[in-house]
From TrEMBL:
Signal peptide location: none
Designated name of the protein: Uncharacterized protein
Organism lineage string: Eukaryota, Fungi, Dikarya, Ascomycota, Saccharomycotina
GO terms assigned for molecular function: enzyme regulator activity
Pfam families found in the cross-reference section: CSG2
Listed GO CC annotations: endoplasmic reticulum membrane
Superkingdom: Eukaryota
Keywords: Membrane, Transmembrane, Transmembrane helix
One of the protein's GO biological processes: intracellular calcium ion homeostasis
Transmembrane segments annotated in the record for this chain: 7-25, 52-70, 127-147, 159-176, 188-213, 233-254, 275-296, 308-326, 338-357, 369-386
Amino acid sequence: MSIMRNINVLWIVIIVTYMIQTRFFEKIFGREQIVDSHTQEVDNSAYTKQGFTVHLAILYLLSWYLLIPFNKWIWSHNESHDFITRQQRELKDREDELEDLSEPIELPQTTTSISSSSTSLSSSISYFAKILTMSFFLAITVVTYTLGLGLSPSFDITLIQNCAFFEIVTLLYGVCSVSRNKNVFRNFLIMMVAVISILIVSYTNATCNLLAGKMSVNKETKEVNDPWLFDRLKAGLITGLGSLAIGPFAVWCNQWFEDKSIKRADKIKINTKNLFYLPTVSILLLLPFLNLGNFSLIVEEYFSQPKFWLNLFVATVFGTLPNIVAIVKLNAYYPNEFVTTCNLGVIIITGLFEWICESGHTVIVRWEVISYIFLSICTITLYFSLRGNLHA
């Protein structure tokens, strides 16, 4: 089996690249620079940086254009031998069929030019209507993701977004008959335990931050001095609701643009065409929300800084591009519902990464450990239950 079709490799790539993308997008906003480390107060003048969220969403969508040659090269590189072998087998089968034929073959009658042009026009209108609908939901997901990163730490966004992805995609895959109806009740119970574990992790995260000194309690008012308290609430609400849009997007990707009967080469062309139109229409939908009034400030704060381009380069090349390619390939070769286990894996690995990289500023409480253990058990169980077999 090719390494690019190995389920374990694709699963790990999706998780690691998502973490890289999110981490370096967070670095672009430079949140640590607008909080006074002594007073824990936020510099209000720095809030103008939040106007960059739509710009970053457009830059993220622009990176999809790099997927066209990148994804095509990966498919052709790994499937050239299989495709040639399949062609040879099909030619041999056709020769055997022609030898057995004793009656002449009737050619299909050609249709009139008027009917063919009307059919072509209606199919084009239908295709672009689907692209417009999917691009609308894609734009919502991307812009709420970047908006959340501009308001709250990346770990909070990772929790809420991946939990929302896992819930809505699993639900709609089952309702729309995209997933297999196998061990539904057992998998439902496992998913419920996983979601409850994520809830406990997010609930105890505030306690962990308080014990680690990331937050403090005001001795006079007895209130928590958290400069991101209301921003966390806004980011959680915006990102959580916006992430639900990925559910219809994922269902339509499988129902509208996937045909199990077509050849792999034709399927590659369809993916390439979609990868061009989806970001293009999404960017056009986001253009009216661009704040051109602070464009000069954005150029000064971001575009003129080498650090910005370095972070964007790492987030795109080592995050976005391999992440989307791995998702496309995993969805093509394995059962569609299996990709939802990556969302649980992201939460587990992100929590482990936080604990390793910030060991001096991290405190783990008992219930958080218990929740991560249950979440890990659920992820492993779903991993082997939903993975299925490699599609031929």
